[in-house]
Predict the structure.
Amino acid sequence: SEQSVWLDNIGASVKSMAALVDSLLFLARMDSSQHPIQKKPFRLDQAVEKAVDPYKILADAKSVTLTASLASDAEYFGDEQRIQQVLGILLDNALRYTPGGGKIEVMLRNLHRAAHITVSDTGPGIPSEHLPKIFDRFYQVDPARNQGGAGLGLSIAKCIVETHGGTIQAFSQPEKGANFSITL
């Protein structure tokens, strides 16, 4: 049983290192213009719903309310898996920092000829002095509060969104949560 515990720890470490290496390889490919993006038409509302669904179980387990308000018939030309990856990054961060009893909301709206996605939470928020840097690689607002991340997620999200010709921004007020806004 002692060896089983050690093997479990080693397995968890290997998974963590593999995820870090995958993230670094993705960013290196983006930097060298080897875009691992495969664009085709898809329904953006369905992609957002697919990205949100797995997080509902995690939110329930943490007593966090996760809701999604999705515009229907939102067609988009892009890489569906990468857009879902962006949402996964944002939802993972929101769940990580939203306390029990809090709320996370995902909204998809069609505005003129663009799609607008927001992910909002009621967590502690991000201090204003950190907002300009949170999309930088390896940047963490408070390394002492590191809850399992390497500081690459938001950088990857920004690369994916910009490769799709979009923008991503963060807004926050301390103790009132964070709001990430994507325009595609």
User: Anything to note?
Assistant: The two ends are 51 Å apart (CA to CA). The chain has a mean pLDDT of 83. The longest strand covers residues 103-111.
